[in-house]
Amino acid sequence: MTIIQTQVLPSTSFQLALENYSRSQDKNNVLGFRECSLQDVLDEITQVESLHEEKWVSKYRIRSRLNHLISFVDRYAKAVDCLVQTANGSGVNPAAFIWGLLRVFLETASSAVKYFASLMDLLEDLGRAASLYTQYDNMYSHHPRFQNALVNVYVDIMLVLQKARKMFSKSNFRDDIVLVKRQLSSLEQKTTLAHRSEAHILALATKQAVIVPETDSNLVEKVTRWLAPIDCYHRSTTFGRQSITNDDSPGDLLLELVPENAQLILIIDGIDELDNPEELIRVLDGLVLQTTRIQIAFLGRELPQFKQHVGSKPHIRISTDASQHDIASYVARNSGIIPVDDDHLRQEIVKEITSRAEGMFLWAHLVLEDISTSTSITSLKDTMRHCPAGLDAIYARFLDKLASQTRHRRTLASDILNWICCAARPLTLNDLEAALSTSVTKGIVDDDDKPFRRTILDICGPFIAISPGSNLIRPVHHSFREYMLGPRMTMSLNDEAKKFLIVQRQAHAQLAIRCLIYSQLRLPSELGRNDEPGSFYRYAINTWCHHALSSDYDEALEQRILNFLSIDKQRQTWLYWILFKSHEPFPFAKVIWLQKFLAEWLANGKETKPRDPEWSGKDWSINTLSLILDVPDDTFEVTYFGKMMVIRDLARRLNHTKQLSAAVDLLEKLQSTEKDYQTEGAIKTMLLLNSLGILYDKQGRFDLAIHTHREALAIQTFHLGESHPKSLWSLNEMGRMYRHLGLLEESEKMHSRALEHLSIALPDDHPEMIWTINTLATTLRKMRRPEEALKLHMKAYEARARSLGDLHVHTLWSTGDVAKCYRDQNLAHDALEWYHKAYNGRSRTLGPEHPDTLWSMNDLGNVLQELGRSTEAYDTQTRALEAQKRVLGVDHEHTMWTMKRLSASVMN
User: Which parts of the sequence belong to the DUF7708 domain (predicted)?
Assistant: First the structure.
């Protein structure tokens, strides 16, 4: 239980209540409370718990249930004692009244078992009410009727405690409980009246602000601050919580949390255990450059990549001797596990372990664990005599011990080591138990085969560390993982012990199979609902592909993958988790990436096994389209903007794979049956119309796209209002269509209206803001206003680069947009730099023969031609044309454009 110790000025209502209560008591009764304090109450709780069985304590949860009430009183106690003078000159601290009543209540009530449950319910309710009405007191203390009601509540709470202190008489005590509830009900009514009064004042102030801007400005500011959380909640449920904001940047978040003029020292331990320490060092190093308020200390082994980044900065090298005293203290403190009765012998063992540890805490810890299993003085001395030096030798010794276990325990140990060393993220004990209950040979998940937790700890205890509270299980040290996975000297290991060493790519294949089996057999009944699957299901569905791509080709794994992906519901569930549950910005790029690399992984097995050459996952795009339409609209993680951005990325993919017409036919067929403007079906109709508009746009049918988006906007405005994000999406899309048709002024109006509404509700770096800024900038560029366009495109680029990284496809779009602005201003050298950046990024992200990459080559050729570098321009566009013929075909619009461009170059 956490008790708030901060001294805070008491509310007037609480002060008046204490004064009223103290006046109602006679002098002898008042003196009975002298010096009673918070500690007395906590001691009484401990005493009550000690007198009862653990089951009784667990049932009534005295500490946690009294937390609100005790925190409320303690928050004001010290300040009240200073400010309030008690009646009768008793010298009793005012807060002692409540502490005394509460202590005696616990003392007597705990023995009256038949009343205790209901009385604890009462105290819990009183505590919650007191904490809640403290907030109301701050807001409405200037309302006399509200304050009188609150004073009555506080006084009656103390009277209830007093009556409980004397006796638990059913009739009288119940009357007091009823009175408190009546006072609380009255207070609810007064709160409502006060709230309406404040709202009325705010409305008047808002209306009068045009005439007299400064009128009641303090009141408006106060109420606005009070309403801010409600506004934030409304905005988050309307626009959704995006994962592409500064809040997701640890560095930016840390800067916001550090108060002005405060100094913060960050100590980062275990930096050497990170797979990618360079990224963390880079981010934190950037923080130090931004402010003098933060200082950072890194602790870890002196690795080359670590020295590269921080080697020039001040550092301290801790010698082996410097840690000997700490190791001695650690070993002495834990020497109780040494199974000897002779204290002199125990001290000798402690000294020997300390002297041989050579500064390694882990070595000392593992040796203690080893000798704790000794069966006699002789075996203990033998263990110490043959105890190897260095961690690798200690690890080898433990593996040798594992090799002497039974066959079943050796198999279980091998599975455990594979999971803790190769898992994509640390697993909890529950995750590990679920993973181990999945049988590769039987292809089932058998809960009865789940190993006992004590067995897991007994077999692999020395190798694993479990985080308190979270139950996350990790290797005991990063060096153990390196030993199990990396090149090592195995001469000292016997043949059975060598089997525990992990061949990483083989281990990943086994983990992928287990994840696929679990994902298939624990499939949720319905997408997007609240029947959230277990933690290991979330791991399995999200990471089976990671494990598969980290393995060598395996025929058994291939069969599992094909079986999993061949069933619509399983494939759609997996796609749903990637698109909407991974909380990644613009996740369809990941779907394309996984599809590409899975196809390559499967192709590696063609030489060993015949396969259907048609399988390439090409139907994923249509599946994804159907999936988005089926996700319930009230699924919080899936925002409308998120859905539409996936549809937009999907449309590009459908166009590249020649499936666009099939997708349009599917949506038109659905639209003909789902057309509903007046009922709940209107939500589905909006989604269908906006999706169709995007596909019509990709087909170049701009008039039809405008008509479709206008139809969606009419429904959205009628049901949701013009400032709703669904309505604003349609506005933006209509703006884009007007731009395609050359109606640039109409386009600017649409984007500007959308941006005006979004600016009220969203921060500048919100993805929907960035999208709208970018579309407006494109219109401005078409209107021959490149300077204005460049500022907006650069703003969009910087926000996307910060949130998504330089190589994300959306960042690369903005990169190309910046290049076009420079080119429009005849700044060809700047344009060339940004076109190169876009081309190189797309080559790495999408591949050298992706249609967007090939189009970037055309852009490069154009600007090279303008710079007079005709040979380079011709060679670049020739390579683009050859690839476009292979990838897109001779009749594709991109191929035909490049052919015309090259013909013109030859003629020139």
Answer: 66-178
Chain position carrying tokens 């956490």: 2
Specify the 3-state DSSP secondary structure of 709.
helix
Q: What is the pLDDT of residues 123-167, one digit of tens each?
A: 555 555 555 555 445 544 555 655 566 566 556 566 555 555 554
> Measured on CA atoms in the order 768, 770, 773, 777, is the torsion positive or negative?
negative
Picking from 387, 418, 434, the residue at the C-terminal end of a domain is: 387
Taking the mean position of all CA atoms in its chain, how far away is CA 57?
Answer: 35
Does the pLDDT value for residue 254 go beyond 50? yes
Q: What is the DSSP letter of 579?
A: I
Q: Is the dihedral angle over the CA atoms 50, 54, 57, 58 positive or is it negative?
A: positive
**One-letter amino acid of 374:** S
Q: Interior CA angle at 217 toward 213 and 223, to 5°?
A: 130
Closest CA to 73 of 95, 104, 45: 95
Joined tokens for residue 119: 């009385």
Read off the amino acid at residue 832. Answer: L
pLDDT at 592 over 50: yes
Whether 72 and 123 share a structural domain = yes
Three-class SS state of 472: strand
13 torsion bin: left (phi>0), alpha (psi -120 to 50), beta (else): alpha
Cβ pair 222, 198 in contact under 8 A: no
Contact 387, 401 (CB under 8 A): no
pLDDT in tens, 281-328: 777 777 777 777 778 888 877 766 666 666 677 777 777 777 778 888
Query: Are 42 and 167 in the same domain?
Result: yes
Beta carbons of 579 and 587 less than 8 angstroms apart: yes
Task: List pLDDT tens digits, range 642-697.
Answer: 788 888 888 888 887 788 888 888 888 887 776 555 555 577 788 889 999 999 99
The model's confidence at residue 876, banded by pLDDT at 50, 70 and 90, is confident
Residue at a domain's end among 387, 417, 439: 387
| Angle CA 516–518–514, to nearest 5 | 55
The tokens describing 81, both together, are 């004692």
Cα separation, 835 vs 267, whole angstroms = 42
Determine if residue 528 is left, alpha or beta; phi over 0 gives left, psi from -120 to 50 gives alpha, anything else beta: left
How many domains, in total, are found in the chain? 3
Sign of CA dihedral 571, 573, 576, 582: negative
User: In one letter, which amino acid is 736?
Assistant: R
CB 767 within 8 A of CB 744: no
- Are 325 and 303 in the same domain? no
